[in-house]
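Give me structure tokens for this 276-residue protein.
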Amino acid sequence: MQDWNVDPHMTFPTHQIVEDAGIEIKTLAGQWNHNYPDRTDHADLSPGEGAEAYPYTLRWDWADEMLYWFDWYLKGEGREPSLGVEIQDNRGGWRFETTYPAPDTEYFEIAAEDLSPSGASITGTNSIMMTYGPFENDTYIAGMPTFHMAVAPHTTNGAHGYLEMTDDSGMHLGHAVMDYRFHAGGRDGQELLVPFSQVTGLMEFMPMDVFLEAGESIHITMTQTGSDYIPSPASIGSYSIDWSTATLTLPLVSRTCDQLFQAPIHEYGEEGQRTC
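Here you go.
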């Protein structure tokens, strides 16, 4: 869930495509980067990118799970593997979902104007701040939040947006990146945009599994660029935003502490795994 080389957004469509094709599949998705589940260098993760979930990111049973899988499917021996998704939230809690996003996901839509955006235009030097909360109950944001907004570029070379979602402490929870020349989808994009003519940017956050306690809020900062790999020419284009029709949609699931499990073969110490 913190791999910014082979991005997490590639994982779950693949899981669902394989599942829909009738092929048995299991996903183990922890808060680690471009790595294996049982590597101690998970300890080197940065705050907001897996550090908060350590040491519960360590899955010492990884090799055993692979052995069960190969014994069953290649040799017809042992026990049948459990299918579905073992997913870890950003604070370390493991739970099981039949698929991901979960079938009972609630898609909670929030009007952007209710986030009290601090501005209506983006340049290379400014940012826009937004806030939602506090949440009344413990909350899981589980999936890929979306932020749809109408933008009007000021030049022909396009526009580029970056959204970062953080908690009350400023810790990174998730981010979204979009070159608005690709507002219509596809691989080629629109080479030139018409200045001051609106296009709708359908921004989608990278997959998140975030636990927020009751009373916590989320904060969104919008800038031109951020965690994008190779900034496009559009990243220097300023633009205006029409907040009147913009919406943030959060994929929410209702889960309790009783639905967390302790990953096997792990030395948890006296405190044990976090409880909500």
